[in-house]
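Question:
Write out your own:
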Amino acid sequence: MGRKKKGYVRKKLVVSSASLKELQELLGVGGESEAARIAMEDRLLAEKLAAAADRIARRGGLLDVFSRTGPPGLKAKVNPVNTVSVHSRGILFQ
């Protein structure tokens, strides 16, 4: 048995052998443990991205500065050097 990698622990999991083998082949990795770690990290990232998208949506979404659309009261102006200044309630964001 090799050395423990920092942050990893051994866990007993019940998984489909065929699914794990298929995942290993799809990811092109040498071991089933590595395939399971990658799948878990990918899923955690997907959940974090979904949570971030939900937070953005609750705040009114993203401002589309190119077609000049957005929530009422929020005006975007493209300045000469192609950066965006957003004015809302007297606050300048760049």
Summary: The helical segments are 17-27, 32-58. Residues 79-94 have pLDDT under 50 and may be disordered. Residues 12-61 form one domain. The beta strands are 75-78, 84-88, 91-93.
